[in-house]
């Protein structure tokens, strides 16, 4: 049908430099859901949202034109309608256009029990109606930005020739030190040998080891998929199911790793700023008034690089009362320490590097000093750790010894050791929690509000 | 370091119209893995692959230039090296360039036990070394095309404003008629109420129902994530874990659904042809000699649309002995019937539409005839069903009745029924098995060869 358009199309048209061809867009057909319906005696106004754009379209309808005026004026918030009408550009008004309805057709009613009435709902309440909340301003902005950020990630890596690899979700490997895992079974409570895979299977906590195998074939690869933790923690930053991006690069050291991380974070911010200006302005007005200032600062400054050892020295000298004031080399930094470094010392993102080997994972490359590993955490203001990365231990003997010392069963890892046996080389990678990135970019404070249907302890609705 | 390049970079340079600036590229540094090392007494040749490009770079080295000539000439297949050398363009030779080594440095040895010696290995053998097989021509081509196809999917949908939605992997919903599921637990064999989620949890078989919730907010959405079937079937087309793309569109009927499917398939083929010409030529030479002809045909023809009822009439009249020769309206078509329709009748892709409601899922929209539903399967030559889609039942009463008749527990689906209660509208969607698309585009015949680390019964290695 000629004139069938989305609200996004019309906003784009009104913003474009192109002179509108009157006969092309004089009459448009829109479909969408009523956000508000302000009915007057003869003239009424519908704010229509069709999900393609953050802003609504204003529909004007009047009793002289519409034969079903009475009926339409009773349509409640949430009702789905089709509109055919005249597109009127209103460059001097708040909204750049309105549609004068010639015809309004009902697609699907919503009655007064519709849970999203015209008022501010709490984020807690909206979590209970996760199937409807993307129809609100806040959650529609969040989930569009989430989608655009996913595209930013794919674009960033694919443009540089990285190969996207889908590492397995169900895995037989034990996750060393990565926390509790979920068991996957078809034979609940019965013998493991008779189970689907004939042995214990669990949900992956990381695709890194398999990504390494692909990096040593393709040089540059990345994963982007779901990972799982069965931790019984009810915090604002933990979920049982979340998405991770895990790039892995052969012939790369820690410095190069940090270069890529920094480029990626800046690219993602630029991308979402360009693609979602309405949503970003909304977040800056309603969710976190320092958001745009913070993100603009991050885009335009070089990330500081500081060794863990230097950070410890700074924290020791800090004129602050930390809850944990026992600052000593070898400790794991708490959130309060990380916040002090990003918010007070650096006033921006900082890569901490070269952590004590005891507090980091087995696969990280040991430095010359014998005490630290070539690892880095990217810490950013307000969110804390955004990315964790490291150069991987490529020296077979060192890696084997470390795994044995940790009591790992080397039989399960022969394939991983093969990557050092056969043409092993310097390589590095990192992990980015996707939800954490979404929170960082939107200013949202609870992970439950950036996942479409969040999974947390005792919470498996929808 | 100046001159540090990937083999992809150099191939691109040699193909570009731009005059090479000699001082920029005279000396290059490459890193990669030795595919072959043909050592002569004074002059030798290494075929180097760095994973960034399908083709190798030829490295020439001679005894007069290299102080470690003797050592280098002994490097075996699989060894990782760095090369600094002079880039020589050879436009008249088979390879467009070679690199005359000035320096070759060892990064990581591979010895004679390296499982990928220079010979043709069977695909079966390569499955056993899934961590090394992306280093072979065939599997490197497969997994690069897989990656590029994933980007094609994201590009196709995002350019049209579709919102990417990550539907949950762990789910509490029963999967109606979608086959066996995996149970997810932290409390193997103990009480369900004490389990992580406090109730039975399983791995998703489809994100469609949740995607519908998002379509009724954003209009156009798509999923792209892993799905699972615990079916004990050892066929060439089934895996326990595979990736699905599930677009869902509000204000869309079955015709529109088919339009999008057809556009998507054609876009994906175009995209991969443009981005991976070397890989596609390789598949056409080594895997399936009719591949390019078939794909080119698909790109350039309109897909036929034929009702199930018409297909049954054609099959009844067919002058062929089917194994199942009992052709009657209401039956599920077997592969042999589908093949006959695509390969003999249509000689190309065909949408079958309007199937008997008894053989299709509960959420498909019932047609006026009361006997069929607005469903479609896209059948393509050699692969069979590539996509399955339908218009969804948006009429609350009809949907509720159908679910009750099937004995479904409506308590679990109130949120899904809400989508019909509140501003429900005509909507449609489809599911595309990603591995099936990869097989279709590459000509590979076994799903185990298009998944990085395949999961099948009793197979959980890596």
From TrEMBL, chains A, B:
The keyword Ligase applies. It catalyses: tRNA(Asn) + L-asparagine + ATP = L-asparaginyl-tRNA(Asn) + AMP + diphosphate + H(+). Its main location: cytoplasm. Belongs to the class-II aminoacyl-tRNA synthetase family. The keyword Glycosyltransferase does not apply. It is found in: Cytoplasm. Homodimer. It is an enzyme of class 6 (ligase). HAMAP family: Asn_tRNA_synth. Pfam families: tRNA-synt_2, tRNA_anti-codon. PROSITE patterns: AA_TRNA_LIGASE_II. Keywords: Aminoacyl-tRNA synthetase, ATP-binding, Cytoplasm, Ligase, Nucleotide-binding, Protein biosynthesis. It comes from the Bacteria. GO terms for cellular component: cytoplasm. Residues 143-452 form the Aminoacyl-transfer RNA synthetases class-II family profile domain. InterPro entries: Aa-tRNA-synt_II, aa-tRNA-synth_II, aa-tRNA-synth_II/BPL/LPL, Asn-tRNA-ligase, Asp/Asn-tRNA-synth_IIb, NA-bd_OB-fold, NA-bd_OB_tRNA. GO terms for molecular function: asparagine-tRNA ligase activity; ATP binding; catalytic activity, acting on a protein; nucleic acid binding; transferase activity. Its EC number is 6.1.1.22. GO terms for biological process: asparaginyl-tRNA aminoacylation. This is Asparagine--tRNA ligase.
């Amino acid at each position: 049908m000629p004139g069938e358009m989305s609200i996004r199309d019309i906003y784009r048209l009104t913003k474009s430099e192109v002179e509108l061809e009157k006969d092309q867009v004089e009459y448009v057909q829109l479909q969408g859901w009523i956000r508000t319906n302000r009915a007057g005696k003869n003239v009424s106004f519908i704010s229509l949202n069709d999900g393609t754009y953050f802003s609504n379209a204003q529909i004007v309808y009047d009793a002289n034109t519409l034969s079903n005026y009475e009926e339409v004026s009773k349509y409640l918030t949430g009702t789905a309608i089709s509109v055919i009408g005249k597109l009127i550009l209103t460059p001097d008004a708040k909204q750049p256009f309105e549609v004068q309805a010639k015809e309004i057709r009902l697609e699907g009613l919503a009655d007064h029990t519709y849970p999203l009435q015209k008022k501010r709902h709490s984020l807690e309440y909206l979590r209970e109606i996760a199937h409807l909340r993307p129809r609100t301003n806040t959650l529609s902005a969040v989930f569009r930005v989430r989608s655009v950020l996913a595209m930013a990630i794919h674009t960033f890596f694919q443009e540089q020739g990285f190969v996207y690899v889908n590492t397995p979700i169900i895995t037989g490997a034990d996750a060393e030190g990565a926390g509790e895992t979920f068991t996957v079974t078809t034979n609940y409570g019965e013998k493991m040998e008779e189970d689907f895979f004939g042995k214990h299977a669990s949900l992956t906590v990381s695709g890194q080891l398999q990504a390494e195998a692909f990096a040593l074939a393709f040089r540059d690869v990345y994963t982007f998929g779901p990972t799982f933790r069965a931790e019984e923690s009810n915090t604002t930053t933990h979920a049982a199911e979340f998405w991770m991006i895990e790039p892995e690069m052969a012939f790369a050291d820690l410095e190069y790793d940090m270069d890529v991380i920094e480029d990626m974070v800046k690219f993602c911010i630029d991308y979402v700023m360009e693609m979602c200006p309405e949503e970003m302005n909304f977040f800056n007005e309603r969710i976190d008034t320092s958001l745009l200032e913070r993100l603009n600062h991050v885009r335009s400054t070089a990330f500081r690089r500081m060794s863990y050892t230097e950070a410890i020295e700074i924290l020791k000298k800090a004129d602050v009362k930390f809850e944990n004031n026992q600052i000593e080399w070898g400790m794991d930094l708490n959130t309060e320490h990380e916040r002090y470094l990003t918010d007070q010392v650096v006033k921006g993102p900082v890569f901490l590097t070269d952590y004590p080997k005891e507090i980091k994972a087995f696969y990280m490359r040991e430095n010359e000093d014998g005490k630290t590993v070539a690892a880095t955490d990217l810490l950013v203001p307000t969110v804390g750790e955004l990315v964790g990365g490291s150069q991987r231990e490529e020296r077979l003997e060192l890696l084997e010894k470390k795994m044995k010392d940790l009591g790992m069963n080397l039989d399960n890892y022969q394939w991983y050791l093969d990557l050092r046996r056969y043409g092993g080389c310097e390589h590095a990678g990192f992990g980015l929690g996707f939800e954490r990135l979404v929170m960082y970019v939107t200013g949202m404070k609870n992970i439950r509000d950036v996942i479409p249907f969040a999974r947390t302890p005792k919470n498996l609705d929808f």
